Amino acid sequence: MDIFGANNGGLKLATFDSSVLSNFYSSGVSLGQTLHAKKINEDILKAANNLDASVIPPWELPAVAPEDREEALQRIFSTGDLIDLNDPRIQGDGDNDNFKNLFALYTGLTRLRELVTFAETDAAATTYKDLLQSRMERYFEETKSFVGGLNFGTDANLLYGIRQTSMTSTLEFPKTESKVIPYHIGAVVSDVRDNAISGLAGTETFDITVTNSSGTTTVNIDLSAVSGTLNVDNIATHINDQMSAAGFVSSIKVKRHDEYAYGFEWSLNSAETLSFGNVGASEPAIYIAGKNNVGDSSSGFVKKLDSLTAASPTEVFRSEIDTTAADDARAVAVDSNGFVYTVGNTAGDMEGQANQASTDTYLRKLDAAGNLVWSRLLGAADQSAGFAVAVDGSDNVVVAGQVQGALTDAAYGGNYDSFVTKFNSSGVEQWTRQAAPYANDGALAVTADSSGNVFVAGYTQAAIDSSNTYAGGNDAFVTKLDSDGTLQWNTQFGDTGDDRATGVALDASGNVFVAAEHNGSAVVRKYTDGGSSATLAWEATAGSLNSGDTVAGLAVGSSGAVYLAGSTTNTAFNGTIAQAHAGGNDGYVTKITDNGGTATVDFTSYVGSAGTDSVAGIAVRANAGADEIYVTGATTGGIDGSTAALAQDYYAVKLDSAGSNAWTKQFRGSIAHSGNAVAFDVDGTDVLSRLGLPKGEVPIADPTELTGLTSVRAGQSFQIAVDGAVARTVTIESDDTLGFLAYKIKKILGQSGSVELKDGIDAKTMTIEAQNGGVIEIFAGPDGFDALPGLGLSAGTLHGPPADSEEEEAEDDTIFELGFVGEMDITDTTSATDVGVLIDNAIREIRDMFRFLSVGPEDERETGLQPVSAEDAEKLASMQAALSFVSSLAQQATATNTARLDGQTGANSSNLFNLVT
Q1: Considering the domain boundaries, does residue 507 fall inside one?
Q2: What's the confidence (pLDDT) of residue 59?
């Protein structure tokens, strides 16, 4: 073992009297690691002639095994800090903090390695894998923080991860600020290529309006002119003939999705914009939002049904909302052009947008054929949940839900808050309101009127504002906002129990109807909207609620009819019983008639089977006294009169205006499903949706704003520091484009870095690169307002290579990398082995850095050595022999203790639970 001391940049041989080790021989080598190190440092090494103890690294000290298994486990499961600057193994004369910090890091990582080795090799580790994983993650966070705070001046740099010269966003952006896609792929319309497309009569017509530099031309498509069967090939041939005859380049072809799925694919000329419309006849359809309940692999979906006047509806499509993590679909709404909006929650990323927390709220827009138009993620630092969606008179989309953490810098409240966010039809956020009491609250339902006013219903565990009184438990509330999100009025009601408003709807006169679980009953309340205040007109009770019963929502029909829906075990709700309770838990629909200042409960119709049934969503077609009622939910029985579900099925049921069953459609499967919401569209199906084509313009231009392209939100920020200067803040503004963001970053980087926006085959990427020897540090923004995740970036440090190759080579020698990147897992032996390798590499890097700081770079060490005299060589040999002997004693002690531990495994394994708990 070579021992050298630093002396003004040169080298000196440390003289050592090997006789000082004699006391150590007799002291024993089983003092335990801490006492052993302390004895060597204080009693032995400091007594060595001319030896600088401050540069004796801890890895040169003989390692000693613990006395027994219990001592080993106590060390592994210790709750103290990993890195201890007061550890006696790193104490010297205190003159060199660089060495002290390195040695503290080394001893900490050796302790971390001990924990990982236990997880890798000890059978008992399996029982405590979650505790070990949690402890390891905390230790790595501590290590990252410690390394981030080290400063070795100009001598060297130590990186927690690996050296990076550049960072590329994980997101893909549109190739141009005004995206033009070369293809538009439609939905599946046929499962057999040669067969006629289902639902077409052959008399349908529609227009394709083409705009180019010469102007606008309308091409009429008449399916009666198609030659042969109305299959995908013959229809494509006819459309192309009409487009070509009009002098246009854009064309359509058959798209084979798989062996049993065919549709159309447009090849769009970049100089031409197409718009589809003038469809003629249409028919109603309903859309169901639901969830496949399979735990962490759960997924949401939207199902479309038409042929609603037939004995059984037709399934048109099912669009999966399937990310790489758990998600669902909670609500659904339709706009005036037939576009479908669904809202829910996801734990994954979605269409290139990064999830910002454990769960984010999503909003997706589909056309009537099931084609995805766009999607948006909305989240805070903790989690958010979208419960409701509505469309106003201008086809703006309003989302309501609950969030933990702030969505905007103007947000206030605390714990779980209600939120309302408005988007335009292109998916650009217009405003977000998060104004709530400090106690928990949540927005469970939302609707909007033709003027853009928004009405929100939910629950609160405190007074919603100073003008309302909190009764205790949960109270129900209703809030009106104007089209800009400004509060118009709040009203709150409840008793000492749990009350909540779960549905809100408007009639043609602007009256506000609220569904609620109130005072142990299912109720409907009518409020007269006075603009800046609300007046309660009446409250009607549908029936008493038993434990576990629910009120799911309500819908307004014609002639003052209001329909309440939910689930109950109460077999005797108010009004005439139109369909009897089937037993257990059934869904229900109760009709209440608004008489102006009073209300009448007309009938209750139960929806159930011999199993457990629920109604979770309701929609009504107001039809001049002949209302059509549609509900969805879940069943474990045969709600369609057939056999019971294999797991849990979802369904759709149509009731007539008297509450009688018109049809039932149960969707069966081997996994549990649930229907959560339903929406009705009077013009839901037409020739375009039958052909899998959208209404309106294609290609649909992406928004130019970052807040529309990504999940980043206005007011979020991050910081950049260049070459050790004060960090400067980059704040996202509502009208920032990708190009302007790059400009803002470039202004901060100056000559030390660059930002490149590079077009790929289908998308554009953004890369930040350090140059000219610059050091670029990227810091996360404030908690809850960090823009980095939404931009696909992360905190880190970039080191630019010097312009001069010789300087670059010299700089490479001064940068040391621990190599800890990404998430690490030790819950199985294979993963633990991989983590152990990373720690071993990091330990070697620390030792290399110590050698660099103490004796200089590798290529300079030999030139600085002075010839060693015979006398010094003899002393060195004596010292090395003595220390080798010490090491051999330590190894013998290790073997003895290991044998002792093996013999005590059974006796001490029972103590493991006490140690870790």
Answers
A1: no
A2: 84
Q: Which amino acid is at 895?
A: A
**Structure tokens of 65?**
């095994």
Q: What is the DSSP string of 395-445?
A: S-EEEEEEEES-SSTT-B--SEEEEEEEE-TTS-EEEEE-B--SS-EEEEE
Q: Which residue type sits at 688?
A: L
Query: Residue 25: its pLDDT value, please?
Result: 37
Report the alpha-carbon distance of residue 446 to residue 910 in Å, rounded.
57
Token pair 């070795």 is at which residue?
Answer: 152
Give the residue numbers spanning the domain of 20: 4-160+831-916
| pLDDT value of position 314 | 94
**Is 228 part of a structural domain of the chain?**
yes
Which residues 6+ apart lie within 8 Å of 646 measured at CB?
Answer: 668, 669, 670
Q: Are 371 and 694 in contact (CB under 8 A)?
A: yes
Tokens of 93: 């004369």
Per residue in 599-614, pLDDT (tens digit) is 999 999 999 999 999 9
- Whether 266 and 222 share a structural domain: yes
CA gap 646, 432 in Å, rounded: 43
Taking the C-alpha atoms of residue 204 and residue 239, their distance in angstroms, rounded to an integer, is 13
Residue 909 has a CB neighbour count (10 Å cut-off) of 14
Provide the 8-state DSSP code for 105: H
Separation of alpha carbons 284 and 504, rounded Å: 23
DSSP category for residue 349? -
**DSSP letter string, 131-147:** HHHHHHHHHHHHHHHHH
Question: How much is the pTM?
Answer: 0.74
* Residue 410 φ then ψ, to 5°: -95, 0
Per the structure, the count of domains in the chain is 3
Give the number of residues written for the chain. 917
- Please list the ranges in the chain whose pLDDT falls under 70: 1-55, 63-68, 91-95, 175-183, 381, 700-702, 803-812, 858-917
Pair 155, 11 in one domain: yes
pLDDT digits (tens, 9 = 90+) for 535-564: 999 999 999 999 999 999 999 999 999 999
Q: What are phi and psi of 721, to 5 degrees?
A: -115, 135
User: Burial of 15 by CB count in 10 Å (0-12 exposed, 13-18 middle, 19+ buried)?
Assistant: middle
Residues 6+ apart with CB under 8 A from 593: 559, 560, 561, 562, 599, 600, 602
User: Which residues are paired to 363 by β-bridges?
Assistant: 343, 376
Domain closes at, from 277, 292, 318: 277
Cβ pair 687, 205 in contact under 8 A: yes
Q: Which of 64, 112, 107 has the alpha carbon at shortest distance from 88? A: 107
Model pLDDT for residues 30-73, shown as the tens digit of each residue: 344 344 444 444 444 444 333 344 467 888 877 666 666 777 77
Report which DSSP code applies to 46.
Answer: G
Domain boundary pick from 230, 246, 277:
277
- Smallest CA-to-CA distance from 395 within 472, 314, 341 is with 341
Distance in angstroms (rounded) separating the CA atoms of residues 901 and 456: 65
Q: CA 539, CA 524: separation in Å to the nearest integer?
A: 6
Q: Are 529 and 480 in contact (CB under 8 A)?
A: yes
H-only helix segments in 149-264: 232-245
pLDDT at residue number 881: 56
Adjacent-strand bridge partners of 534: 529
CB-CB neighbours of 173 under 10 Å: 25
> What is the CATH classification number for the domain harbouring 199?
2.60.40
Residue 69 lies in a domain: yes
Adjacent-strand bridge partners of 675: 290
CA distances to 54, 377, 388, 785 from 362, in Å: 58, 4, 11, 18
